[in-house]
Amino acid sequence: MKNILSKYIFVIFCLIFSQITNAKTDECFNCHSGLDDSPSKLFKNDIHQKVGLSCSSCHGGDNTSDDMEISMDKKNGFLGIPSQNKISEICAKCHSDIENMKKYRTDISTGQLEELKKSVHGAIAVDGKGMILQCTTCHNAHGIKKVTDSGSLVYPTNIPNTCNKCHGDINYMRKYNPGLSVDQLAKYRESKHGKLNLKGNRKVAQCASCHGSHAVFTSKDVRSKVYPLNIPETCSTCHSDKEYMKESNIPTDQFEKYKKSVHGVALFEKKDISAPVCNSCHGNHAATPPGISSISKICGTCHALNAELFGNSPHKKVFDENNYPECETCHGNHLILVARDQLLGVNEGAVCAKCHTEEKNPKGFKAAVKMRALIDSLVVLDSISRRQIFIAEQKGMEVEEAKFKLRDVHQAELEARTVVHAFDAEKFSEIINKGVNASNEVISEANSQVDEYYFRRYGLVVAVLIISLLALLLYFQIKRIEAKQNL
Amino acid sequence: MTQEIQKEKVQPRRDFLKYLLSSVTAGFGLIVFYPVFSFMKPPKQREVEVTSLKIGNVDDIEIGDSKIIRFGNKPVIVIRNGKEDFSALSATCTHLDCTVQYKKDESVIWCACHNGKYDLTGRNISGPPPRPLEKFKADVKNNEIIISKIV
Amino acid sequence: MKKIFTNLYNWVDERVDLSDIVKFMSKKYVPVHSHSIWYYFGGVSLFFFIIQVVTGILLLFYYKGSADLAYESIHFIMSKVEFGWLIRSIHAWSANLFVLAAFIHMFSVYFEKAYRKPREMTWITGMLMFFLALGFGFSGYLLPWNELAFFATKVGTDIAGVLPIIGEPIKIFLRGGEDVTGATLSRFFGFHVALFPGIFTVLLFIHLLLVQRQGMSEPLNEKVKKTMPFFPNFVLRDLLLWLVVLNLLAILAVFFPAELGIKADPLAPAPAGIKPEWYFLFMFQTLKYIPGYVLFIEGEILGIFLFGLAGILWVLVPFWDKKSEQGRQNKLVNYLGIFAVMFIIVMTIVGWLL
Ligand code: FES
């Protein structure tokens, strides 16, 4: 009885309500709102509701009938609660349809499902029933807001938490990628980006800025925005944009400089992905500029020997005391050029004299001059060695031996350029001497080959002379014999 | 022999010619046989050594030690891992062609130039080297170590 | 010194009667006429052969006839062995000049019709030696086991392989298997230093014996009035020429030493411009020009067949040229010879330039 009554009242209510909303009566929503269930509550504020979509747009059925038997009849296309890939397909029905989407906004993108499908999240889930992620995982099902709405789950300041729902859950993550850490959010909150993000800054980078939104790939995937080869580009979308970076007071020329640096050249021209990119020095999730005293440690992750030598050198203490950034003082930061021998010494282009001026620090000044002279002399000897080898080779002589020894010269040069970071003139000249000795051997070996060449020529002259002379004498002898015979 | 009879007639010139002829013939013999005998003289390096090479006795290298040998035109590093267990790798660093060395305490092959490191199978494990070291075969036969190219 | 020599001579003379040979030699006369110069090319060929034997034996001291060591051993000879470069370069140059001298010797004999009765056997042994010389060249070319040689051998043996029925077995026999491999090298080495020299020596012995026995042939259309004693006049002249040739060899060897190229790699693609040695070039080039099919016969087979036929006719010339035998001019032989010379020269040049 009560039931019938309430139903009666409800129907009337619905009728009135539909009268209010006039346009087309959405019977599904009418009823469900009456039931006060959470989907309908959420849907009230959903962007889709606002643009006139109804429950049946996704769930199917006939939204014009208030009779549940009819409206929720499978014959009328009722789907119920869609599951797994069905969910995303339903969203894509509209969102992948350019024509349809144009009605709302002309610049809206439409490839989201396609992108999701090929992304890591589009792989099949552990239960084997569908993709790991569906649209609703990040966007929710009901109560979807515009991205620009701060209530949206994918609003910049909300994204970190949205992603963290899964990525911070070790139990969940280990099902897919046990090796992947789950502390990205914690790290992120320690970074400049994360801190500003927490304060509500929409412009700083969050997960999607670097990883992409729908087309997310692992960092080992060449398509990924965070694949080493792509990282500088990715970071520079913001950091090189003067307009965008206006409020922060940091420079925007890092990318330009990096491109010209030895590291950038290695990365972009040689496609050497072991070359450091932005995050190698600044970190990724916890991105922040390295502190002055830790620079040598950071460079040392690759340039270990140089860092170690530097750490034990007299410079270490002085640099720390004076707050000189370690490697950077001589080599610079983003625009690190190939370290040439010219860097050493006190002449133009050299860095030592920055501190070791002749007046203030004659000892260091002298040492710098001496070391530069040493390496220069080795380089000269090296080129002489090569030239001698070339000359011998041009003459068609055997130079394998000399070339083999040339390796030692080459090695001494490379070692000297490393050992220079110990700033120990004695150690340095020891290695240079090794190279000098080797190159002397090379030169004498090559020269002996050149001598051999001339020996062959002179030997030939002697041989030809003797043979010709013999031939001539033989000729006379024949003439004599014949003269005699004719007597 | 017939000439001998007429010896007196043309004595001076003939003698000169004869003298010259025999000494030049001697010189000729010299320029012919000098190269020939030099050729036959065993050269400093006795034999061609390229595809495989005996590098000496097993005990020339102590266990856990290494030795750099010359294989044709390239250095090869031979490491003795165990009693009869040797490994041989090209000793040319794949980074910038320095000669690598065995670092016993770390059990790695190490390049002094830029701290490149390889494990004992030649795989580049740290530092700048972009590629593993080329492998060679190391066998022990009759107590001798034989290094050969892997084809 | 002289005494020892005389004693030694007498010692041998007592036992084998050397005086007979000396008498024979000094009684032997060489005709002198306007074409006498051609007589010397036989001697020059002989000289080159001697050089080949001597330098070849020397090279054997260090050469290793296996695929993985051949190249290296020659590199070793060229770089580590004293005068190794000289010995090898002389061997290589002398090989080429040997074939050249043999060519000239052959054609001069041909045009002089010196092959006519009673010297048929001399001609035939000579021709056989000529083919052996080509075989020496072909087999020796592979021995350094460098890229060029490898592919030239491949192409060369391939040509043998196109012959119907017998081609394939011949190819397999030459290669010691389906492909040019270390097995090919081993057998070419065997041919080059054992089989060929053995046969060649026998032929050479017969050839020289016949020449000594029958004396030099005289030209058909010229009455010979003058002669010179074979010993010492002709022999000394021969020696004189040999010295000149030796000089030439030394100069060539120093200024254009034999090259080694890069080691053969059976897996590498064939480099562009593979050419056989120059003395095979005319045949190689001709085979290229014959169209794929002539009537119903495959062009290459036809070419080889024609060359074979021409070769047989050439070898058998003493038997079908009856006119010369009777002391008359045989124009046909001359025309054929001129055609052959022109053909070889033109084709060689074309092959060289293209
Ligand atoms: S050369 Fe070996 S690490 Fe650079």
Spatial gap, N to C terminus of chain A: 166 Å
The total tally of domains of chain B equals: 2
> Runs of chain A with pLDDT <50, length 5+?
17-23
Count of helical segments of chain A?
Answer: 26
CATH class of the largest domain in chain B: Mainly Beta
Main sheet specs of chain B: 6 strands, antiparallel
List the secondary-structure elements of chain A in sequence, H or E. HHHHHHHHHHHHHHHHHHHHHHHHHH
**Large-scale geometry of chain B:** elongated
CATH architecture of the largest domain in chain B: 3-layer Sandwich
Order of H and E elements of chain B: HHEEEEEEEEEE
Arithmetic mean of pLDDT of chain A: 87
Using a beta-carbon cutoff below 8 angstroms, give the protein chain pair with the largest interface and the number of residues from each chain. A-B, 30 and 28 residues
Helix content of chain A: 55-70%
Helix content of chain B: 10-25%
How much β-strand is present in the residues of chain A?
under 5%
Number of strands of chain B: 10
Provide the β-strand percentage band of chain B.
25-35%
Give a quick rundown of the structure.
Chain A is mostly helical and 487 residues long. Chain A has 26 helices and no strands.
Notes on the protein architecture:
The complex is a heterotrimer of chains A (487), B (151) and C (354). Chain A has 487 residues and is an all-alpha fold. Among the domains of chain A are: 1-81, no CATH class; 362-456. Chain A is 57% helix and 0% strand. Chain A contains 26 helices and no strands. Chain A starts with a helix and ends with a helix. By secondary structure, chain B is an alpha+beta fold. Chain B has 2 domains: 1-44; 52-149, 3-layer Sandwich (Rieske Iron-sulfur Protein), CATH 2.102.10. Chain B has 2 helices and 10 strands. Chain B has helices at 2-5, 11-40; strands at residues 52-57, 66-71, 74-80, 86-90, 101-103, 108-111, 116-118, 124-126, 135-141, 144-149. Mean pLDDT of chain B is 82; it is low at 1-8. By secondary structure, chain C is mainly alpha-helical. Chain C has a domain at 35-263: Cytochrome Bc1 Complex, Chain C (Up-down Bundle), CATH 1.20.810. Chain C contains 15 helices and 4 strands. The longest helix of chain C is centred in the middle third of the chain and has 33 residues, at 182-214. Classes of the chains: A mainly alpha (487), B alpha+beta (151), C mainly alpha (354). Chains in contact: A-B, A-C, B-C. At the A-B interface, helix 21, helix 25 and helix 26 of A face helix 2 of B.
